[in-house]
Design brief:
globular, 6-stranded mixed β-sheet, alpha/beta, 18 helices, Rossmann fold, binds adenosine-5'-triphosphate, binds magnesium ion
């Protein structure tokens, strides 16, 4: 039999929505099969059906030609199906090995044989080039490493078919390169992979075939060698998508954000921001480029009040906002599209509607003398959902039930709509489909043209080059270069980000 996995005519409904409507996906042994579709198209749902987390209303699943009922994830594991989720499910205080064996511990008499498990984990890590330390604690390792632990977890349970749900969205460019190597090693050892990604370049680079779904319906499967990003984009969106953003030259006005001599330590007391200077003016987009871990996150957390500065000043329109609490920073005119949308962006168990006014619900017109005016809240929310194309059955749906990309669009809508003086956008398009990226880029440029100051943090050099009016390169806690995109190129940026050619900042 040619196919290891066949999902035939799958239908899965949620209240108010058909997430999968007659979708067919057939995966060949030894291939990397891309699953492509807009935000909310139904990709994660389809994979959750395959992994036994959801039961389909209709349709059939076959593994190696044999019909199966995947009633829960344990059954999926026994059938050789493993899944690496969009959000990891690891216990922070446990070691790598403890996490991996959780639920299928090897026993030696009545006790768990941790030594044996560590050996096995080390062996698997070696075989696939994962470079994971079996004894490290989860909280001490990077996100990229945590993802590898999830991969090891599936392999340890004997996975033959691995499902990756947007694995590269949380990775840095270097980590993405390594993950691609790992996927190739998995294929070499006879595994098959289903890969969800919004990055068309990745599909072209590593996938053999690609199945496209749109609004819950199957559009078809194409051979990757016979297609290109433009065709893939229009298959998934149903229209032409432009990959570069048209914009006029910026007309910067007064300085909005001004940072002087800022120093910040992280929770382990390591100096992350080191005597940093940065200005962002009204009417310009400043792109913060850098390799993850050079202080960008700490810088943004400090501006937005989530972290304390050790020394230095941050001012907004000339007024100090250093070390104010997040609500005060917000009220003084700062919007924040946070990197971690689950920790800082949304209250997952609140309805979408209430999430749309998270910073303003206690003020007019949403509240009067301490009473919330739900009619006004939901009216506003509906307008934002419409404008930002947040796909949700209704404003009453819990944020948790939205697809990853639609959660992101909801946050962006809320933050941009508050008409702030400064928009801090940290990886605003993470997890968004190409159509949504195009839309968000246009929005940010529109806001710039209305005179807002925009500080953009992105690990995608394409995005930095496309959107920024000025690029500030951050290395080792400092801005080491400050230049216009037309004065540089990706090659030079890469070098600056790696810490070479440091005199550039002083040159100008
Ligand atoms: N547990 C749930 N309860 C209710 N609705 C849900 C649930 N999970 C998903 N949905 C809805 O099903 C649809 C498909 O969502 P899904 O998460 O599969 O999209 P996706 O293709 O993975 O999108 P993204 O690229 O944004 O991650 C969405 O409209 C979503 O709101
Ligand atoms: Mg998804």
């Amino acid at each position: 039999m040619e196919y290891v996995i066949e999902m035939l005519n799958i239908r899965k409904e949620f209240p108010g929505i058909v997430a999968n409507d007659d979708i067919t996906l057939q995966v060949k042994k030894g291939e990397i099969h891309a699953l492509l579709g807009e935000n909310g198209a139904g990709k994660s749902t389809l994979m959750n059906v395959l992994f036994g987390l959801y039961q389909p209303e209709k349709g059939e699943i076959k593994v190696k030609g044999k019909e199966v009922q995947v009633t829960d994830p344990n059954v999926a594991n026994r059938l050789g199906i493993g899944m690496v989720h969009q959000h990891f499910m690891l216990v922070d205080t446990f070691t790598v090995t403890e996490n991996i064996i959780l639920g299928s511990e090897p026993k030696k008499g009545a006790t768990v044989d941790l030594k044996k498990a560590e050996k096995e984990v080390a062996h698997l890590s070696e075989l696939y080039g994962l470079k994971v330390d079996p004894r490290a604690k989860i909280r001490d390792i990077s996100v990229g490493m945590q993802q590898r632990v999830e991969i090891l977890k599936t392999l340890y349970r004997g996975a033959e078919i691995l499902i990756f749900d947007e694995p590269t969205a949380v990775l840095t460019p270097q980590e993405i390169k390594e993950l691609i190597q790992i996927m190739r090693a998995l294929i070499r050892e006879g595994k098959s992979i289903i890969l969800i990604t919004h990055k068309l370049k990745e599909i072209i680079e590593v996938c053999d075939r690609c199945t496209v779904i749109r609004k819950g319906k199957g559009i078809g499967t194409v051979e990757v060698s016979e297609t290109n990003p433009t065709e893939l984009a229009s298959l998934m969106v149903g229209r032409e998508v432009s990959f570069t953003t048209e914009k006029t030259a910026a007309v910067p006005k007064d300085t909005v954000l001004s940072i002087r001599d800022l120093s910040v330590k992280d929770s382990r007391n390591v100096q992350m921001v080191n005597n940093l200077q940065l200005d962002v003016r009204a009417g310009e987009i400043v792109g913060l480029a850098g390799v993850d871990g050079n202080g960008q996150s700490e810088l943004i957390e400090t501006i937005t009040g989530l972290r304390k500065a050790d020394s230095g000043t941050i001012s907004l329109n000339g007024k100090p906002i250093t070390n104010l609490n997040p609500r005060k920073v917000t009220e003084s005119g700062v919007s924040h599209i946070p990197q971690d949308r689950h920790r800082f962006g949304l209250v997952l168990d609140f309805p979408v509607g209430e999430n749309m006014v998270l910073q303003t619900y206690y003020q007019a017109p949403f509240a009067n003398k301490g009473m919330l005016k739900y009619k006004d809240i939901y009216e506003k929310a509906n307008a934002l959902i419409e404008e930002y194309d947040v796909r949700t059955p209704s404003v009453y749906t819990k944020a948790r039930a939205l697809s990853g990309g639609n959660q992101q669009k909801a946050i962006i809508g809320r933050e941009v709509d508050r008409s702030p003086d400064l928009i801090i956008a940290a990886q605003p398009t993470r997890g968004l489909d190409v159509g949504a990226i195009e839309f968000i880029h246009k929005k940010l440029i529109e806001e710039r043209d209305k005179g807002r100051a925009v500080l953009l943090l992105s690990f995608e050099l394409d995005e930095i080059m496309n959107l920024s009016d000025r690029i500030a390169v951050m290395f080792d806690g400092q801005i080491v270069a400050d230049m216009k995109p037309e004065e540089t190129n990706e090659q030079e940026l890469g070098l600056l980000m790696a810490g070479s050619n440091q005199q550039k900042a002083g040159d100008k």
